[in-house]
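Hi F.,

I've been meaning to write this up properly since the lab meeting, where we talked about keeping a consistent format for the predictions we share between groups. The idea is simple: the sequence comes first, exactly as it goes in, then the structure tokens exactly as they come out, then a line or two of notes. No screenshots and no reformatting. I'm using this chain as the first example so we have something concrete to point to.
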Amino acid sequence: MASSKPKPGSVQESEVLASCVLEGNRRALAQAITLVESTRSDHRAAASDLLQRLMPYAGNSIRLGISGVPGVGKSTFVEALGNHVIDAGHRVAVLTVDPSSAISGGSILGDKTRMELLSRRPEAYIRPSPAGKTLGGVTRRSREALILCEAAGFDVVIVETVGVGQSETKVADMTDMFVLLLLPGGGDELQGIKRGIMELADLVLINKADDELEVLAERSASEYRNALRLLQPRSVDWKVKVRTCSARDGKGVTEAWQLALQHRDALESSGELTLRRATQARDWMWSEVSDSLIAELQSDMEVRRQTPILEAAASDGRIPPTVAARQLLDIFLKRQNN
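Output, unedited:
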């Protein structure tokens, strides 16, 4: 009797999917990322099993996080860098995060269309995902997607964030090197960039250093170098570099990649890379615990029944929001203990 086809999203299917991902099957990789991004409860067991199978084959890539102010040319830079890295003999996966609408929740997912040349190359894989309600410039499942890309044989993984913001620091918690792109013209922009994200940067690039903006870009780079002297460096083994580049013309892209390799060597030789990834894994675990607990609480039937009542009471000022939150937690914990 012929064996039945594995049920979609089942643990049996994840075993087959894992084998296909390890073979470098791009369609299987896309299906795997869709599975781990799924919010359906019946897909979580399969997603966990899939990650468990593929974790031993991950972790060997150079992980780069790219962030920057809106309009700085992140996608143009990522495409230029990706093409250069492929020409150097690597396989590149690009995980892009597009902003979701606060009204409809939808996302345009246009990053792939902005990297037309890179997307045509067989050595590249581009995966756009909606940010959803997740803060920090990445999606909740960006870490899992990164692991899957590594297991599929991509030895350079680039994570491009939504756009710089006060909370856009999570990409630094899942990559080895954090690259911050800025526009020519320090002054007001220097005041607008949050101290936290500047402290996390391993490489600052002043993009669009072309045509009449080249001189201004060099001046801006000098201003940022002076400003960075006042900040505590992220690593004792690496001094933050500030350079100019033109992603449009490809100028400075080669040097940026060489600095990424130097950064990797510096952290690897000192043992900091191993420690950094271990810390990231622990943070990932607790982040998942927090997100999972909230999801469990929100799916509890009694909590869902009481939520609109307590929300209305908090909105009307009849009870403090802290008291309403505590009551929801008490309802949830009491039901868990019964």
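Notes:
Residues 91 and 122 are 9 Å apart (CA to CA).
The chain has 14 helices and seven strands.

If this format works for you, I'll send the rest the same way.

G.
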